[in-house]
Amino acid sequence: MKFDVAIVGAGHAGVEAAFALARQGARVTLFSDEPCLPYFRPRLIAVAFGQAAPEAIAIKPRKAYEDAGIDLRHGAVGHVDAGARAVDGRVFDGLVLATGSRAFVPPFQGERGRARPLWTLADAEALRGACAPGRALTLIGGGVLGVEAALRAAEAGLRVTLVEAAPALLGGCLGGDEAALRGALEARGVALRVGVGVASVTAEGIVLADGTALADDVLLCSAGARPNGALAGAEGFIRTRPDLSLAPGVYAAGDPAQPTAARPVCQVRRAQLMGQLAAGNLLAEREGRPTEAWAEPALPLTLVAPGASVYVRGETRGEGLEERRLEGGGPGAARTVVCREGRPVGLRWVNTREALAEWEKRLA
Ligand SMILES: Cc1cc2nc3c(=O)[nH]c(=O)nc-3n(C[C@H](O)[C@H](O)[C@H](O)COP(=O)(O)OP(=O)(O)OC[C@H]3O[C@@H](n4cnc5c(N)ncnc54)[C@H](O)[C@@H]3O)c2cc1C
């Protein structure tokens, strides 16, 4: 009898786990609550601003699922019983919970319902309908998603204002190199309001904490995400054992899985690696082999958008670090090597890739 596995959630973690298990001969049922093929979520920004077609962002074509024997089922799973390894009452030999995240829209005062999220293909398609060239778009949130969306919206001919409550963009990870990113945004016509929060949302726009009223045609909120809650604890995360297991034959992977004390971030590569590990451990457990513990990877922060790019890797903030600005890189670029006791431990590259590969090799 084939090893019969259910995967709940067909995002990056779920798809990775599904193919890894199918390759090892498991019978895989992959449950998706979205009506489309699983897709590469970061590309939603390009879809929202008309720079990619929805069908062009699928992770794999439908035939790949058919060839691998993966049964991709559309419709939300209502109930998971980890103890019984049951999904909506059907019992499996193994389960992987990979339910991902959903957009977080803060509890703004006023017309909060006007603040649109961008987390699903449905969100992207709705935005696409609303975002004609010449319209005014206000974007709340200067993280990776917000900055890329601002640049793509400007590329699509919208009049863009980016609002960030914190004193710096991208969570402050660029330090003194942030000027290069701000310069690129402003060169593309993006108006920046950094260090001032939103006081309220009105029918015509938003009012900032300093009293400024900004009118918009479209209001997009990219203020972070919250894990989706199948079997999640109070803060929404799924607390697993170090090997991502929750119960015999039951594993979690992707954004909500929290096997270590480190606060996880939403990252595609992290979700994929977790999907692979959950699949591998599920098979190891079945075959009586030891399972492997999850090691939180040190992934770079990357942003590539029309008119700007950012790459931040390693240790770039903290005590005892010295910064070395490198010359060159081209107009509007910044390159900083962060050192501890003279040895490079972190890199910040903005608007250039010059000599990046070489410096990566030198990173301690
Ligand atoms: C616009 C945007 C841009 C981003 N840009 C980047 C980037 O540049 N780089 C980067 O690393 N990361 C980026 N991210 C974050 C990245 O997309 C996530 O970290 C990644 O998708 C997590 O993968 P996952 O498999 O855990 O979850 P998801 O990709 O969220 O997939 C989970 C799936 O499970 C489904 N699901 C949930 N509950 C159920 C249920 N009960 N039944 C059935 N299905 C269910 C969800 O609908 C979803 O389809 C971006 C995210 C967004 C939205």
Quick take:
By secondary structure, the chain is of the alpha/beta class. It has helices at residues 12-23, 44-48, 62-68, 121-130, 144-155, 178-187, 268-286, 356-362; strands at residues 4-8, 27-32, 71-74, 80-81, 86-87, 90-91, 94-97, 101-103, 109-110, 115-116, 136-140, 159-164, 191-194, 198-201, 205-208, 213-215, 218-221, 225-227, 238-239, 245-247, 250-252, 257-258, 301-305, 308-314, 321-326, 334-340, 343-350.
User: How many DSSP E strands?
Assistant: 27
Given helix and strand content, the structural type is: alpha/beta
Bound ligand species: flavin-adenine dinucleotide
How many domains in all? Answer: 3
Which CATH first-tier class of the largest domain would you pick?
Alpha Beta
Based on the model shown, name its key terms.
alpha/beta; FAD/NAD(P)-binding domain; 3 domains; six-stranded mixed sheet; 8 helices; globular; binds flavin-adenine dinucleotide
SSE topology:
Elements: E1 4-8, H1 12-23, E2 27-32, H2 44-48, H3 62-68, E3 71-74, E4 80-81, E5 86-87, E6 90-91, E7 94-97, E8 101-103, E9 109-110, E10 115-116, H4 121-130, E11 136-140, H5 144-155, E12 159-164, H6 178-187, E13 191-194, E14 198-201, E15 205-208, E16 213-215, E17 218-221, E18 225-227, E19 238-239, E20 245-247, E21 250-252, E22 257-258, H7 268-286, E23 301-305, E24 308-314, E25 321-326, E26 334-340, E27 343-350, H8 356-362
Parallel strand pairs: 1-2, 1-7, 2-3, 7-21, 9-14, 10-17, 11-12, 11-17, 12-13, 19-22
Antiparallel strand pairs: 4-5, 5-6, 8-18, 14-15, 15-16, 20-21, 23-24, 24-27, 25-26, 26-27
The chain binds flavin-adenine dinucleotide.
Flavin-adenine dinucleotide (FAD) binds next to α1, β2, α2, α5 and α7.
